[in-house]
Amino acid sequence: AVQHPLWPEVDRVVKQQVTMAKMGIGECGTGWQLFAEDGEMKMYRREEEVDGMVVDPLKAVHVVKGITGHEVCNYFFNPKYRYDWETTLEHMTVLETISDDTMVFLQTHKRIWPASQRDVVFWSHMRKLPNGQDRDGPDMWTVVNNSTESSEHPANAGKCVRIYLTVCLLCQTRVHPPKDGTPISRDNVSCKITYCSVVNPGGWAPASVLRAVYKREYPKFLKRFTAYVVNQTKNQPILF
Ligand SMILES: CCCCCc1ccc(-c2ccc(S(=O)(=O)CCO)cc2)cc1[C@H]1C[C@H]1c1ccccn1
């Protein structure tokens, strides 16, 4: 089949992001600080500035009972659910559907005082990853979101400042088969979620404001999103 012009970039960025997401916090270089913890959820960030702008990379690890990696990635990737869990979203448009697992989005996010409102254009790709090592282990699933250009929606043409991001959601399903050989239920599955993101806020915003926003928004986002998936799937057959 004819390749979409974005495909080589999608494939390269997905492989690069999954490799980094698989690395433990210790292997990801130095300077990571734990900045939020809530039960199984641990959030780390590294303080980094590019041209005087805060672009702190973020890495969160969470283990959620009762859901699978395939289910988590479906609810993160599929636009029809996004308004349900993405609280900072003001508007979302699907600019292009490249395939059933690759789409291009335009999103405007709610303004965060005193900074100006932001928007973002990104491709989003969902993929099942071969479970290299232990053959019979459950698969891993990922969604990678990466900023891209759009000639119809040039950066900073309207009221919004364009932000640039790379996000990787990497999910590993864990099954704990019941001792008595009864069929597997949601009590026997859990999902290890690794969420990595680097957001360049585009135009200038005070470092103190950005860091306060990230500190507040990221834990809220991951807790709300995972609770949403648990609630959506609880009475449905398990999707491995
Ligand atoms: C002055 C603030 C400038 C930056 C505002 C802003 C915009 C978009 C985003 C963002 C855009 C996409 C994603 S995603 O993971 O791809 C899911 C799809 O929506 C994630 C986060 C983040 C933030 C920063 C608030 C911070 C923040 C952090 C987690 C959630 C919401 N807001």
Structural notes for this entry:
With 240 residues, the chain is an alpha+beta fold. It has helices spanning 7-22, 69-77, 79-85, 207-233; strands at residues 33-38, 41-45, 49-50, 53-54, 58-65, 89-99, 102-109, 118-129, 140-147, 161-162, 164-175, 189-200. Strands 1, 2, 5, 6, 7, 8, 9, 10, 11 and 12 form a 10-stranded mixed sheet that branches. It has a two-stranded antiparallel sheet with strand order 3-4. A hairpin with a 2-residue loop joins strand 6 (89-99) and strand 7 (102-109). It is globular. The protein starts with 6 loop residues before the first helix and ends in a 7-residue tail after the last helix. The mean pLDDT is 94. The protein binds the ligand CCCCCc1ccc(-c2ccc(S(=O)(=O)CCO)cc2)cc1[C@H]1C[C@H]1c1ccccn1. Ligand 9ML is lined by residues 86, 88, 107, 109, 112, 115, 118, 120, 145, 163, 165, 167, 197, 199, 201, 205, 210, 213-214, 217-218, 221.
Distance between the termini: 28 Å
Major pleated sheet = 10 strands, mixed
Overall spatial form:
globular
Q: What's the number of extended β-strand segments?
A: 12
The percentage helix is 10-25%
Q: Give the percentage of residues in beta strands.
A: 35-45%
Give me the secondary-structure category.
alpha+beta
Q: Which ranges are low-confidence, i.e. pLDDT below 50, for 5 or more consecutive residues?
A: none
User: How large, in whole angstroms, is the Cα Rg?
Assistant: 18 Å
How is this structure best summarized?
With 240 residues, this protein is an alpha+beta fold. Helices cover 25% and strands 37% of the residues.
